[in-house]
Design a protein that fits this description.
By secondary structure, the chain is α+β, with helices and mostly antiparallel strands. The chain is built from 25 helices and 18 strands. Among the domains are: 1-126, no CATH class; 717-781, Complement Module, domain 1. The strands form 8 sheets. A 4-stranded antiparallel β-sheet has the order 13-14-16-17. Strands 1-6 form a two-stranded antiparallel sheet. The protein has a two-stranded parallel sheet with strand order 2-10.
Length: 782
């Protein structure tokens, strides 16, 4: 085996051709031995780090345990993350060995080959590339993990896959060291300014004005739908691999730790805010680009599609936990301890108790809620939206069961999930996105729907997740108002500071349900954004992160995250979007429309090509009818079009819904969802728009509703002849028509596997075979 492929960036890893050794076979064995020994060393490093990390998190008083639990990642994600850590650490061990031998970082011998990389990936237990043959040709419903949405590229948009790069990563060493990692390093002749300095001098605002057009619900929906599209977990180990020092106790840059430099104005002392790097991900398709395989890439742990994974989860394990499988009704599980004052359900509690959410010091304990996304408890407006959709699923499921009595529980569940996913798509693309990027940008970057395009990759882009869709952080309100039936504040439900809403589901259960919160975000104007009033001090000076014993700064975290992910600078992204590069201060003043802010930016960054993309996009003057400037409008628009056109199950795609069903779906609004699932009886026609109560509000009776009769399905003649397919324990079936014949397709719930025929066919007046059995998986028997 000969190592070939020359890479254009420096400091790459090598299988070194040792002096005195011939190439070919002798080199093959030495190269393989070197790779395997490096892998074993990296495995020990990673496992020891994770072991010490678990010990720290298991301590009863550990705030790290609280934070980690509340933003927990699924076992599948943890396994993939561990494999990626081993893969990346193996490469680092190889690099260190080469450095020790040759006393230099920049190396020019033969480089790693595809075969070498594949061996390291296999040893690290990275997931293998998926062949199109794994995809069922007649899948009626989307998979829970997003797998096989695109039959030719099964991993596009699936959970636990890399965030895609629209522009190449810019690591300082070409591989894994973020921008700003080497503090003396010059970029365009200057050091990058510390994120905290950028935050305090440019971004932090002690006052914010209100937007008289849109309600705070627009902001809350942005966070909610972001949690349906992206989740980049942070590294699970608390200890640095190479030194054993934890990220909370050191201000040094060390593998997992990339602390944010701070400077105390009064004492002059320098310190830092802790920062955990995003976990890496295995590049499962090494044949695409060897250079990217060598680089650190970040993970999207959830599906990229707008598919209501925020309701249902993104793994079979999560989905099974969230379903009411024992009820045989296609519904989601609800809380078995608490209901709201009118008897409506709340979300179920998490599986592991006791949980770590904040508690009412005077009352009964309320555990953390569980939903399709682990961030559900981050704030009570977010929790309220989750609760709303749980109720909407169960409302629709009950109606469909009454309309189609012959449907199996699995069919009821899947059809309801399909409807809920469609409603998420409609509300987001029709009612939310045009308000964010403006009608002109919507037409330019998204346009009318032309059908499913299998050549479009719907995967979330790194710059979208890490910068563009974080525009909403500039509109986060420091105060939450809770309103009564007349949309007025009262003494018994006082307004809350933002920090009082974090991880506090007890406030929903004990303080009037979700209605006061929903009325508050509908009846409060969203905050306006301008270049001189960017981010509220409540989240730049007093942000609470539960694994850190000090207040944090969200603006600094966002800037550092962009550097952690090696995002190119603001000017590169403007060029990507075919916008004019900012070459002079006058250019910047023209884009920002605030001369003082433009001058501050140039003074701090010193070179305009060094401007971080999140800051640059945020300070741009907003487009007409938009809440973003031209750069973020471009990046958000491109992403939303990819999510739409690259989704085989998009609600408008051919064959997904009937014309009658599409017509009914298009009637629905978030106002209607609120009317159907709460005690609120008057709302704005469009709840994203701010209006005065009662003059701008209408009765729920005047809000269009969806007629589920469009989903009525008459029993087929074959079903009348053969009767219902036999039921099975720990599984269910879906009826499907294949080649004119009625087929019962069986599946097992999570933790069980099918034994027997997957499908049985109605032939004549009987079913062709005995149904399969669902046998427990071996690992569940212990």
């Amino acid at each position: 085996m000969v190592c070939f492929f020359n890479l254009i960036f420096h400091a790459v890893l090598v299988c070194i051709v040792l002096p005195g050794f011939p190439a070919d076979e002798t080199r093959y064995f030495n190269c393989k031995e070197l790779l395997i020994s490096s892998y074993h060393e990296s495995l020990q490093i990673v496992d020891e780090s994770l072991f010490h990390s678990r010990q720290r998190r298991s301590a009863p008083s550990s705030s790290t345990h609280m934070f980690t639990f509340l933003r927990q990642t699924e076992p599948e994600t943890l396994e993939t993350s561990r494999a990626a850590e081993v893969f990346q650490t193996t490469l680092q061990v190889l690099k260190n060995r080469a450095r020790q031998r040759y006393k230099r970082d920049v190396m020019t011998p033969e480089l790693l080959s595809w075969e070498d990389m594949e061996l390291i990936a296999e040893l690290s237990q990275c997931p293998p590339a998926m062949h199109p043959s794994i995809c069922h040709p007649n899948s009626k419903y989307r998979s829970i993990s997003g797998l096989c949405n695109n039959r030719q590229n099964p991993l596009w948009g699936a959970a636990n896959t890399p965030l895609v790069r629209w522009l190449p990563a810019e690591y300082e060493d070409g591989e894994r060291e973020p921008k700003g990692w080497n503090r003396g390093r010059l970029h365009n002749g200057f050091q990058l300014p510390p994120p905290r300095e950028v935050s305090t001098k440019i971004m932090s605002s002690s006052s914010k004005s209100e937007d008289d057009i849109y309600s705070q619900l627009l902001v809350e929906w942005g966070q909610y739908i972001d949690h349906d599209i992206t989740f980049t977990p942070q590294s699970t180990g608390s200890a640095a691999f190479w030194t054993g020092i934890g990220c909370l106790t050191s201000c040094e840059n060390m593998h997992l730790c990339f602390p944010i430099e701070t400077h105390d104005k009064l004492s002059g002392a320098r310190g830092c805010m802790p920062f955990y790097r995003s976990t890496p991900v295995c590049l499962v398709n090494l044949e695409t680009d060897l250079g990217q395989a060598l680089q650190r890439q970040q993970m999207n742990a959830i599906t990229s599609f707008i598919d209501a994974s925020v309701v249902y989860g993104h793994t079979p394990r999560m989905e099974s936990f969230l379903r009411d499988l024992s009820g045989l009704n296609g519904k989601l599980a609800v809380n078995n301890q608490f209901k709201d004052p009118k008897g409506r359900p709340y979300l179920p509690f998490v599986a592991t108790l006791p949980s770590a959410c904040q508690q009412d010091p005077q009352g009964e304990k309320v555990e953390c809620f569980s939903a399709g996304d682990s961030r559900v408890n981050e704030g009570i407006p977010l929790t309220s939206l989750h609760t709303l959709w749980l109720r909407e699923h169960n409302r629709i499921a009950e109606a469909l069961k009454g309309i189609n009595g012959h449907w199996s529980p699995e069919t009821i569940y899947q059809e309801t999930r399909k409807i809920i996913g469609a409603l998420h798509q409609i509300i987001t693309m029709r009612d939310y996105v045009p308000k964010i990027i403006g009608p002109e940008s919507f037409e330019h970057y998204i346009g009318s729907y032309g059908g499913y395009d299998p050549t479009t990759d719907p995967s979330a882009a790194n710059v979208f997740a890490t910068a563009a869709f974080r525009f909403g952080h500039a509109t986060v309100a420091p105060i939450l108002r809770r309103l009564n039936e007349s949309f007025q504040e009262t003494e018994h439900l006082p307004r809350l500071r933002l920090r009082e809403t974090f991880f506090s589901p007890w406030r929903i259960v004990k303080e009037g349900g979700i209605e006061p919160i929903l009325r508050g975000i509908i009846g409060t104007a969203a905050l306006a954004t301008s270049a001189d009033m960017l981010v509220a001090e409540e989240i730049t000076e007093r942000l609470v992160v539960l694994n850190v014993p000090q207040h944090m700064d969200l603006a600094s975290l966002n800037l550092q995250r962009g550097r952690d992910h090696a995002l190119p600078g603001y000017n590169d992204w403007r060029e990507f979007c075919e916008l004019k590069r900012i070459n002079t201060l006058d250019d910047l003043k023209e884009v920002v429309r605030d001369y003082k802010v433009a001058e501050k930016i140039q003074k701090i960054y010193k070179h305009l090509d060094n401007i971080d993309v999140w800051l640059g996009g945020l300070v741009e003057d907003m487009l007409p009818g938009a809440r973003t400037g031209p750069l973020f409008a471009c990046l958000i628009g491109k992403q939303m079009r990819a999510l739409r056109d690259g989704d085989r199950f998009w609600w408008e795609a051919e064959g997904v819904f009937t014309p009658q069903q599409k017509a009914e779906l298009s009637k629905v609004s978030l106002s209607r969802i609120i009317c159907d699932n709460t005690d609120i009886r008057e709302v704005p026609y469009d709840s994203f728009r701010f209006g005065k109560c009662p003059s701008d509000y209408v009765s729920c009776n005047h809000i269009p509703l969806m007629n589920l009769e469009a989903w009525r399905e008459e029993r087929s003649a074959d079903l009348e002849q053969c009767g219902f397919p036999p039921k099975i324990t720990n599984g269910d079936f879906i009826l499907s028509s294949t080649s004119g014949r009625l087929v019962a397709l069986y599946s097992c719930f999570h933790g069980f596997k099918l034994k027997g025929a997957t499908a049985i066919v109605c032939e004549g007046n009987r079913w062709s075979d005995q149904p399969p059995q669902c046998t427990v998986l071996a690992w569940l028997q212990f």
